[in-house]
Amino acid sequence: MSLETGRYTIKNGDNVVGRALAEDLSLLPKRIILAPSDSSSTWIIEKSKHNENEYLLISNFFFFFYFFF
User: Fold this and answer.
1) Is the pLDDT of residue 40 over 60?
2) Between the CA atoms of 4, 65, 33 and 45, what dihedral angle is there, to the nearest 10 degrees?
3) Which InterPro entries match (predicted)?
């Protein structure tokens, strides 16, 4: 199953997956956190134009990382 480019909410059980509000500005990897289900955190998932199994995930705080299947 492939995802189309769009805005998604990612959940783990009843918790929403998101990024911490306060993060350092270094290029080091950042934490992914679980927030209560009443929190709002969205991700923009962009499908790669070069590889059908590659996606770019952008959190609502504009940090990003690559995700491979």
Assistant:
1) yes
2) -10
3) Inhibitor_I66 (IPR031755)
